[in-house]
Every structure is written in C-alpha cells, then in structure tokens.
Amino acid sequence: MPVEPLNLFVIQLALALTALFAAAAVYDFVTFRRRRKNSGEAIYRCDTCRHIYIAPSRTPLARCPKCGKQNEPVKE
C-alpha cells in the first residue's frame, strides 16, 4: 500500500500544528493561573476594628476603609 508524499507531508504538518497548539494552550493555562494568584494585591486586617480588606501590595501600609487606621499586610 503506497503512501503519496503529499499525504505524508500533510499528516506531519497536522501533527506538528496540533502539538504546538496543545503546548500553547497549556502555557496559557499555567500563566493565567499564576497571574491570577499574584494579582498584585495584599490582604489586610485592621488591628482596631478587625475589618478585612484588600489593597495594592506595592504599599507597605494601607489605610482601613472603616476606621482609617494604617495596617501592615497579613498576606501578600
């Protein structure tokens, strides 16, 4: 059963493109999860009123929206 060279080329091309698409999909999925995990926000808890809030992690202290006291991040 002879195989034509064009069919061989098309099969190899399809396999290569499928592998590239799968690799890109996996990379995108992993990157999206990592980006979501490190979104640049930190969790703060006020020492005075115990209010829990989120603020950008680029600030060492964040002001509580309820009472106005500045707090350090609990988790970044």
Structure in words:
The chain has one helix at 5-37; strands spanning 41-45, 52-56, 62-63, 70-71, 73-75. It has 76 residues and is α+β, with helices and mostly antiparallel strands. The chain has two domains: 1-38; 40-76, no CATH class. A three-stranded antiparallel sheet has the order 2-1-5, with no helix packed on it. A two-stranded antiparallel ribbon has the order 3-4. β3 (62-63) and β4 form a beta hairpin. It starts with a helix and ends with a strand. The model has no long low-confidence stretch (mean pLDDT 87).
Structural features:
76 residues; alpha+beta; 5 strands; rod-shaped
The whole-number mean of residue pLDDT values reads: 87
Main sheet: strands, sense, barrel? 3 strands, antiparallel
Global geometry: rod-shaped
Overall tally of structural domains: 2
Strand content: 15-25%
Low-confidence stretches: none
Number of helices: 1
State the distance separating the first and last CA atoms: 64 Å
Q: In order across it, which strands form the biggest sheet?
A: 2-1-5
Helicity level, as a percent range? Answer: 40-55%
Rg is 26 Å
What is the total tally of β strands?
5
Coarse structural class: alpha+beta
- SSE sequence, one letter per element: HEEEEE
